[in-house]
Design a protein that fits this description.
GO biological process, one term: thiamine diphosphate biosynthetic process
Helix content: 40-55%
Number of helices: 15
CATH architecture of the largest domain: 3-Layer(aba) Sandwich
Number of domains: 3
Radius of gyration: 31 Å
Strand content: 15-25%
Keywords: ATP-binding, Kinase, Membrane, Nucleotide-binding, Transferase, Transmembrane, Transmembrane helix
Largest sheet: 8 strands, mixed
Pfam families: SteA-like_C
Number of strands: 15
Structural class: alpha/beta
Strand order of the largest sheet: 7-6-5-1-2-3-4-8
GO molecular function: ATP binding; kinase activity; thiamine diphosphokinase activity
Protein name: Thiamin pyrophosphokinase, catalytic domain protein
Distance between the termini: 90 Å
CATH topology of the largest domain: Rossmann fold
CATH class of the largest domain: Alpha Beta
Shape: flat
């Protein structure tokens, strides 16, 4: 990838000033971005849509903590901003984000040095249009080459695994345990260690309401157990899973080579745990878990795990193998990402909810008063209410007479 730098003498930039606006996902400053501000983003391979939103605010400059184009995909974001006359600085570094102060006056020197007030927070490189164009062209060629290889491997996988994909040949027999049921497949996540726990906890209402069949994939089975959830099935190499989880009530399924050899069989035997094997030409336990649910007629398959979508395939085909793509196509409309379920169960603590609680409190108070008054007098319930009302009316009338 060519480095998209430019000399200050060619950029026409002798120093830029403006109020810093933290427009990273954490900063949420895009809505406050005004003309003349310096927008700070964290957007590797910036999309056209994000660039259009930034350009519409007419900022003095856009500083990217990452690279506007990494070279993995041909993206139009930097073109949009440069066409709008917005100077771009990239590679400021993630560490700069910790010292950002939205609303403070910032300066970008001709050499790319970025300061807030008198404090230097990082150094980036100005982006050159010629380098952007060259990077885009190289990324286009790379994308075509990668996709030709990717779909060649996809055809090869179909050739070797069509019996599995069409008729489920090799899928372990599990009876009717998933038929017509909702199934939750929980896989390890790449990134922050606490994110998986958060994603699982965000589904607690879904789990409580529907009691789905839970499949723990690899080390995610331990996370489930730590949170008090007992997986019904565990799929993965037992080396990655604690003895406590393997000895629980979950049925253990080992990924195996097409010839039936399973790497973790020794550990299972040492622990005295029964297990089934699932032979397939994929080393992804998540793919196997989804196929298990699919061929055992699950009504819905909710997945927690790294996404497999077109953007992932374009940017890094290694993270979205042909087996992953075909597995998800086989599951079809039954497959739902957990974030969609989280959004359905998310409760908004806005004014509407507060008013509802206030009205409920008033109604409860009124009901309590009515009961006390109705039952507290010498007469019948209705007579007591009428007498009390008449007394209140007479007293109010006396105030105004």
């Amino acid at each position: 990838m060519s480095r998209m730098t430019v000399n200050a003498s060619n950029s026409g930039t002798t120093g830029l000033t403006g109020r810093i606006r933290d427009c990273t996902p954490q900063g949420k400053g895009l809505g406050k971005l005004s003309a003349g501000d310096i927008a700070v983003v964290d957007s590797p391979d910036m999309t056209r849509r994000e660039a259009e939103l930034l350009a519409s605010a007419k900022p003095a400059a856009v500083v990217n903590l990452a690279s506007f184009s990494t070279g993995s995909i041909p993206n139009y974001g930097p073109h949009v901003l440069l066409d709008a006359g917005v100077p771009l600085v990239e590679g400021a570094g993630a560490e700069a984000r910790s010292v950002l102060r939205s609303g403070k006056k910032g300066t970008i020197e001709a050499d790319g040095t970025i300061s807030v007030g008198k404090k230097r927070i990082g150094t980036g490189a100005f982006v050159d249009r010629a380098a952007v164009d060259a990077n885009f062209a190289a990324a286009q060629r790379s994308l075509v080459d990668n996709m030709e290889a990717y779909f060649g491997n996809t055809i090869q996988f179909i050739h070797s695994e069509s019996p599995l994909l069409i008729d489920g040949v090799g899928v372990p027999e599990l009876g009717e345990s998933m038929a017509g049921q909702k199934v939750l497949v929980v896989s390890p996540l790449t990134g922050e260690s606490g994110e998986l726990r958060t994603r699982i906890e965000n589904l607690r209402n879904f789990i409580r309401e529907y009691a789905p069949v839970i499949i723990g994939v690899g080390a995610a089975a331990d996370t489930l157990v730590d949170l008090g959830y007992n997986p019904d099935f565990i799929v993965g190499d037992p080396v990655d899973i604690s003895a406590e989880s393997l000895r629980g009530h979950a049925r253990v399924i080992l990924p195996a080579d097409p010839d039936g050899h399973a790497v973790g069989l020794e550990r299972i035997q040492d622990l005295g745990v029964g297990a089934m094997t699932f032979p397939a030409a994929t080393n992804s336990s998540t793919d196997l878990a989804i196929l298990l649910a699919t061929f055992h007629n699950a009504e819905m398959i909710v997945t927690i795990g790294d996404p497999v979508d077109l953007d992932t395939i374009f940017a890094n085909p290694a993270d979205a193998s042909p087996a992953a793509l075909l597995t998800r196509l086989k599951a079809g409309g039954r497959l739902v990402d957990s974030t969609a379920i989280e959004n359905l169960y998310r409760t908004t603590s806005g004014s509407g909810v507060a008013w509802a609680w206030a009205i409920l409190g008033i109604l409860v108070a009124l009901a309590t008063v009515i009961l006390i008054v109705g039952l507290g007098g010498p007469g019948e319930f209705t007579d007591n209410l009428v007498d009390t009302w008449n007394q209140i009316a007479l007293r109010v009338q006396g105030w105004f007479s």
